[in-house]
């Protein structure tokens, strides 16, 4: 097999999450990704709504790109009924958008502890309650709810689900067709139980998406925008590919890096760098 | 029992780690803590060395204060032989200082991944190797090596031991008299396995020290100096006291808060506030 052909086949599985190159418009992202032979993109609700979900779907299809995920729903840990109802309504809207966009995966970040609360177990239970309410809508639309465990540093303010094990415990209460998990190396790399849990996730067909970013320090204030380009940090990214493949996952590998230093650069150049890093550090 | 008596007995178990009020000299800390009826202090190597360990020991004894820990040894994950030897020598010096200071607990922060390495399992194994080398020295000096699992957000640059379970797995290879664990709520609060692991730790007599600080967001850049005063954050601190007591732990409750906002205030006032918060949110 020629080197060029290997490269092209390798990139077919790569998806670039829009936030990695947020300086690009949807059209620029589609053209840039397609030109490099990247297979898919992960999109965010705000820009998709601005473009129109159906038009965004057509744009990606025209460039031969899969939409590997819509980010994101979730944030449904509120206890107060009105806030809870509003969150569920918003998640139903996100399911509509995902269906119109033609993606089978709605990424869910469950949300943190409501102000003044300290009961993580109760908040996690409310995540299960929210999933139960959303499952019928997900089934109708043919979109999978993909629960994402976030790094424990977000447990208070963004995501009370901190490990793959917790996410699988929650997802396991529902059919795998409707509720899966997102495996993001950035959030899970420190946890020695991950290989075992990925085997469990694979056996249950729960892996909805593999996402990658590297772990670099020092973390910035707020710890949201400090993700590293593939290969720049501490994570054994290749191991995540190997573990998920061993678990039977053959889906997209989506690179999602939140980093202002990447946003300041030429977006097409960042796309090219990301593809090269993927070939070098993941494949 | 009178309210005043309850308060005084309650504070006897409280220890204030020096870094909580680093604006105070050792003499000011000793006087301030003793006046409030606080039972102990946790000290750091640099100021202890500057004061002289024996003189520091006399000062605390004169004020009726226990020295509940010396912070800290560890940082022995280097692979390179010279760096590794230097780290072990430094830890032996820390054991000497702890013995002279009259504390039975040397807190160990194991260290992160060496530059360019990505193998967490191998680095954790080097922690076990270092413990094996230090155990005889600890035994001779009557000082316990107290392995501290740090929050997973420090896994790359400070501590490859991220959970109480990992710390217990490592400590369990050595006699409990010589190797224990530090249970710091700030690092462990997000982990639902902690109550179970504390029961295991208690059954093995591994709990060398309970430390408390609260979790507040947003985290500052570098994520080192963002700990909250007791009661200001997301952690159920009382649960940590209850779990450790259920596990048979009757030792000190050391409050260790790294927060520049506390350092800017009058240190004696911060001591008083800490004692009041302890009575309200922990007892």
Automatic annotation (TrEMBL), chains A, B:
InterPro entries: IolE/XylAMocC-like, Xyl_isomerase-like_sf, Xyl_isomerase-like_TIM-brl
Residue span, Xylose isomerase-like TIM barrel domain: 33-273
A GO molecular-function descriptor: isomerase activity
Signal sequence residues: none
Key words of the record: Isomerase
Protein name, UniProt field: Sugar phosphate isomerase/epimerase
Lineage: Bacteria, Bacillati, Actinomycetota, Actinomycetes, Kitasatosporales
